[in-house]
């Protein structure tokens, strides 16, 4: 199956200021005085070094005493190792005493070492999230007075009362004597829980740097491809079709508890290595010094492969060797299970091959980020998901289709993240001319401008997070597969506002509508410039497709040209913003798989709620009046099936009401 999405990335306009900071780092440094700072930026944008600049400034100029950096796993700690910053123009170097880089070795009394650090004159400590949690439980929030607590991959925290990391953040904010720097490339969670509670989130100053900005600044990387491939037997036999051994690759094998796993994790690695060796296991040798496998190919070449699945003592040797990889030729492949996902740096990686369905969008987007780092000689990065093919005869087809929807959702999120930005303004006669904002300017009749700073913040900084929440909604998933189930008006004026209100419970009804306008414009116009799947090559210049008809300028929207002077929010409300998702599927999945998805989608969706049935009731009445019959549950049209389902629920509710009355 061809790539679902391919994007042109690089235009190379990256600059470095006189302190050695790249664009994203300079933007974060401008906000260095904030007590609570949230940095939301994609992988490879320089978040780690941005924290170094900010932390050193807080110590030198803001009266803070220490910087504590917490990462989710030990392998990520290498991103915060001692780094010389003075040669690039900054006033100090980032110096981590080896004793207080608690991610460098396994075991030991790390909580005790953490407490010792707090009482010492040392200024920088690096540890895991777990070590931070345990130390916090031991010493309490007061011990963190005048400390900068920097949490990498901040989406590991949550607003849920059971989240220990979230509890640490909430207690630090409540105490009020510490500074918190939160960093993440995906400010959302796979379980849909908010990362922060609204009252805590409001205290954070945000710095946002988009995927589009990051990729546009690259010197070498020009394209990112995302593809889903299907196998019908064992993935080991199918991997030959998607694994290019000339590419630097990270392979994530499926969990041993998943349906895709043919055997134990070590046996899977053995089979992969033997396959790479051309079927000759004797050609697989382990280098004792590095811990890497040296695998001789049938053509005589030797590949160096790091095995992060093995949890024997060899893993420590492999992790230490990975920290020393500085040249492209030092390593050819990594095989992993739960590691090498978020925050893992191997800049030469150009292909991430994930076997099996992934339940979390956060996980998949983090995996994709492993390949999107700029490096000399790397012009194309590829994410491939090798997944079990849903077959009509399989009893587990419902689960397969559900997992397929999750994969689709990820692709949609990436499409939106990588799309250009637009600057939408209300079209008002004789309006005062203002300085142009970044992005493609578009004037929209009837657009509600943000009425409060809160709404403005959501529109400017949190639309991507809102899209994640929206794409996870069961009704939106259903619309993605069967776009005719709901009318555009129902999607845009009823379903989407419900998602917004759930995601931002502090908004009023009018504020929800303001956010809805911005979201619809963002969805529709980014789809308007997205490359058409199946085309020979993408063409995303950041400008809408336009043509002239007399003196009128027409833009292409929803497959037709619309007069720019007549562009209104009412017109946008009449367009299904998810139709493009169905186009991607229908052009890239073969007929049998698509038919399987369609045939089983009713088993995927959740039972219709009373609220949803009430929402559809006006459409039921309109259908009955225009067709002179009631909608039929057995109709071929999925929209009619949905209306019939709503009718049955409304009637059942009326019967229950009559009985109880």
From TrEMBL:
<dbReference type="GO" id="GO:0004386">
    <property type="term" value="F:helicase activity"/>
</dbReference>
<keyword id="KW-0255">Endonuclease</keyword>
<dbReference type="GO" id="GO:0003676">
    <property type="term" value="F:nucleic acid binding"/>
</dbReference>
<keyword id="KW-0347">Helicase</keyword>
<dbReference type="GO" id="GO:0004519">
    <property type="term" value="F:endonuclease activity"/>
</dbReference>
<dbReference type="GO" id="GO:0005524">
    <property type="term" value="F:ATP binding"/>
</dbReference>
<dbReference type="InterPro" id="IPR027417">
    <property type="entry name" value="P-loop_NTPase"/>
</dbReference>
<keyword id="KW-0067">ATP-binding</keyword>
<protein>
    <submittedName>
        <fullName>Putative DNA helicase / endonuclease</fullName>
    </submittedName>
</protein>
<dbReference type="InterPro" id="IPR014001">
    <property type="entry name" value="Helicase_ATP-bd"/>
</dbReference>
<keyword id="KW-0547">Nucleotide-binding</keyword>
<keyword id="KW-0540">Nuclease</keyword>
<dbReference type="InterPro" id="IPR011545">
    <property type="entry name" value="DEAD/DEAH_box_helicase_dom"/>
</dbReference>
<keyword id="KW-0378">Hydrolase</keyword>
<feature type="domain" description="Helicase ATP-binding">
    <location>
        <begin position="17"/>
        <end position="215"/>
    </location>
</feature>
<dbReference type="Pfam" id="PF00270">
    <property type="entry name" value="DEAD"/>
</dbReference>
């Amino acid at each position: 199956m061809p790539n679902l999405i391919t994007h042109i990335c690089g235009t190379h306009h990256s600059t470095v200021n006189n302190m050695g900071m790249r664009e994203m780092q300079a933007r974060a440094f401008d906000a260095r005085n904030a007590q609570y700072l949230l940095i939301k930026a994609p992988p490879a944008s320089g978040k780690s070094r941005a924290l170094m600049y900010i932390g050193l400034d807080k110590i030198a100029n803001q009266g803070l005493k220490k910087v504590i950096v917490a990462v989710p796993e030990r392998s990520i700690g290498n991103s915060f190792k001692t780094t010389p910053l003075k040669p690039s123009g900054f006033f100090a170097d980032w110096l981590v005493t080896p004793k207080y880089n608690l991610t460098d070795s396994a075991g030991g009394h790390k909580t005790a070492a953490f407490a010792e650090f707090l009482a010492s004159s040392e200024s920088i400590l690096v540890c895991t999230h777990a070590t931070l949690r345990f130390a916090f439980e031991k010493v309490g929030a007061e011990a963190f007075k005048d400390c900068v607590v920097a949490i990498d991959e901040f989406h590991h925290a949550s607003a849920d009362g059971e989240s220990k990391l979230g509890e640490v953040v909430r207690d630090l904010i409540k105490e009020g004597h510490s500074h918190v720097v939160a960093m993440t490339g995906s400010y959302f969670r796979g379980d849909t829980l908010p990362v922060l509670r609204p009252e805590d989130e409001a205290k954070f100053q945000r710095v946002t740097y988009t995927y589009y900005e990051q990729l546009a600044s690259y010197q070498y990387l020009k394209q990112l491809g995302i593809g889903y491939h299907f196998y019908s037997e064992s993935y080991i036999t199918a991997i030959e079709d998607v694994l290019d051994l000339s590419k630097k690759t990270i392979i994530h094998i499926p969990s041993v508890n998943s349906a895709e796993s043919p055997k134990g994790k070590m046996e899977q690695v053995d089979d992969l290595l033997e396959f790479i060796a051309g079927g000759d296991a004797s050609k697989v040798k382990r280098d004792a010094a590095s811990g890497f496998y040296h695998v001789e190919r049938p053509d005589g070449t030797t590949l160096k492969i790091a095995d992060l699945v093995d949890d024997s003592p060899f893993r420590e040797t492999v992790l230490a060797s990975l920290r020393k990889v500085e040249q492209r030729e030092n390593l050819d492949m990594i095989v992993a299970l739960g590691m090498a996902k978020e925050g893992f740096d191997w800049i030469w990686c150009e292909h991430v091959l994930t076997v099996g369905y992934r339940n979390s969008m956060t996980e998949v987007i983090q995996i994709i980020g492993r390949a999107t780092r700029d490096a000399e000689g790397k012009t194309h990065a590829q994410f491939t998901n090798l997944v079990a093919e849903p077959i009509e005869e399989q009893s587990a087809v419902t689960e397969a289709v559900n997992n397929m929807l999750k994969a689709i959702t990820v692709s949609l999120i990436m499409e939106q993240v990588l799309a250009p930005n637009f600057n939408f303004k209300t079209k008002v006669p004789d309006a005062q001319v203002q300085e142009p904002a970044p992005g493609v300017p578009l004037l929209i009749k009837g657009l509600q401008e943000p009425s409060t700073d809160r709404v403005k913040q959501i529109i400017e900084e949190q639309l991507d997070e809102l899209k994640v929440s929206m794409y996870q909604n069961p009704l939106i998933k259903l619309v993605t597969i069967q776009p005719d189930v709901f009318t555009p008006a129902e999607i845009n004026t009823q379903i989407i506002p419900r998602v917004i209100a759930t995601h931002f419970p502090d908004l009023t009804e009018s504020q929800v509508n303001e956010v809805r306008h911005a979201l619809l414009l963002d969805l529709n116009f980014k789809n308007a410039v997205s490359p058409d799947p199946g085309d020979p090559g993408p063409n995303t210049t950041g400008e809408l497709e336009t043509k002239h008809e007399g003196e009128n300028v027409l833009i292409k929207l929803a497959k037709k040209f619309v007069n720019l002077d007549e562009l209104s929010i009412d017109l946008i409300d009449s367009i299904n913003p998810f139709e493009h998702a169905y186009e991607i599927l229908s052009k890239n999945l073969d007929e049998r798989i698509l038919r399987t998805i369609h045939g089983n989608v009713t088993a995927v969706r959740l039972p219709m709620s009373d609220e949803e049935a009430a929402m559809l009731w006006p459409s039921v009445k309109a259908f009955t009046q225009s067709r002179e019959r009631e909608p039929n549950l057995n109709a071929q049209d999925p929209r009619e099936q949905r209306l019939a389902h709503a009718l049955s629920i409304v009637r059942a509710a009326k019967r229950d009401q009559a009985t109880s009355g």
